[in-house]
Specification:
12 strands, Jelly Rolls, alpha+beta, single chain
């Protein structure tokens, strides 16, 4: 009699940490926020490329966490960001977290957002103002950094290959359906997209946040007031912005009010030569 074949056990290593929390905002706060989002969009219907949703960051609307209709959401985000970081093993006493920007996204029927990531930030968050959990209005699609289990590069893409379609250990992406009140957090380096809004006559409304992680301000660091006070931030962790020094613009350039730059044209009798 042949000995029994040992059972194979798989250990899934290095999972991506996607946080989800169902918020329960006051209905009046949600209504005011929805109205504010639509007012910020105004008459614009999308981004310049056809089929792309209207994203406020491309239209100068990128600091909505400073606006009163979004204050309650910013407060709740603050709580959940620290909970997320502590769940990943971070010591909050050795960090400072900053909202870099926040913007609305409005997807009309037939619109979505292409695959991208946010190299400027460390942590990203999305809050869904509406959504019924079916995904018909467009899902948040998250992509793996690489297909670690496909073994032969390219096989997990599909096209009739030997790997079963949508196998959980070789999935090409993960789709998360929006639900009104749902807040999600994930690393900003993760490629993501928004699938097409297939809901007739319904807008998909969400708010996105980019956050950066630095060392704490010098006065609040562990050991402040001692010899450690003059110490540098940990390696690979940027010093607190209060320790930064902005360089003046180079000669011939002027900084615009929107933070961009423009060349200062010469004036005088030689200007047109």
């Amino acid at each position: 009699m042949a000995p029994p074949v040992p059972e194979l056990q798989l250990c899934q290593l290095f999972p991506l940490a996607l946080a989800q929390v169902q918020l329960r905002p006051d209905p009046l706060d949600s209504a005011v926020m929805m109205q504010a989002l639509l007012q910020l969009r105004g008459e614009q219907q999308g981004n310049p490329n056809p089929g792309y949703a209207w994203t406020g960051d491309l239209h100068g609307v990128a600091q909505i966490h400073r606006l009163p209709p979004f204050a309650w959401l910013t407060d709740l985000l603050h709580q959940q960001v620290w909970a997320y970081l502590q769940a990943l093993g971070f010591d909050p006493h050795q960090l400072a977290v900053h909202i870099q920007r926040s913007w609305p996204v409005v997807s009309a029927p037939g619109q979505g957002v292409g695959r991208h990531h946010h190299p400027n930030a460390h942590l990203s968050a999305v809050y869904y103002v509406n959504g019924d959990g079916t995904g018909r209005s467009g899902c948040l699609r998250l992509y793996p950094h690489r297909q670690a289990n496909e073994l032969v590069p390219g096989l997990a893409v599909g096209h009739g290959g030997p790997i079963a379609a949508d196998h959980p250990l070789n999935s090409a992406w993960f789709d998360l359906a929006p639900q009104a009140g749902l807040l999600v957090l994930f690393p900003s380096s993760t490629d993501h997209a928004v699938t097409c809004n297939d809901e007739d006559g319904e807008l998909r409304l969400s708010v996105s946040f980019d956050l950066a992680i630095t060392a704490p301000a010098r006065a609040s660091r562990p050991g402040a007031g001692s010899a450690c006070e003059a110490g540098e931030a940990p390696e690979y962790l940027s010093p607190h912005p209060s320790d930064w020094t902005a360089l003046p613009a180079p000669a011939g350039f002027a900084i615009r009010e929107d933070g961009g730059s423009q060349i200062e044209r010469p004036r005088g009798p030689l200007a047109n030569e």
